[in-house]
Amino acid sequence: MSDETASGAVPALPVTFRPARTRAVLLTAGVAVFVALAVISVLLPNLSPGERTSFVFTGALLLGVLVLLSRPKVVADDSGVTVVNIATKRRLEWAEIVRVNLRPGDPWVFLDLTDGTSLPALGIQPGIAKQRAISDARALRALAEARGATDVH
User: Fold this and answer.
1) What is the pLDDT of residues 14-71, one digit of tens each?
2) How would you class 8 by CB atoms within 10 Å of its CB: exposed for 0-12, middle for 13-18, buried for 19 or more?
3) Which residues contact 106 (CB under 8 A, 6 or more apart)?
4) pTM of the model as a whole
């Protein structure tokens, strides 16, 4: 067991890891853009109904994109891990996870899997809250180690 894993407590299950600050920023910005474009469409006097609709539609589209960007999370439970990224969702059994990595400079955690591939887990990312991401990565590492991973670094 590494020093990092030794200092990371195994959290109670189920647990959800999510970049809360990043999510709050994205959702707040999305709502603000939508409201601003909707208000502009109402306040500009010379717009046709189609132009007003296009302002609102553009705001809704931007809000939708930011909602998708705020979607990532990692959910760990007794039987395994569900990794929800921007457009994908994958369920893993604990035995499939060989290693949990968050190296300096990585944009998010990577899960090395028994099939030789690596799965990005965008739900743990050091963007705005670096210490929280490190703590979450250590917790997921400790869970993977406790639940049957063979080589967790």
Assistant:
1) 999 999 999 999 999 999 999 999 999 999 999 999 999 999 999 999 999 999 999 9
2) buried
3) 126
4) 0.81
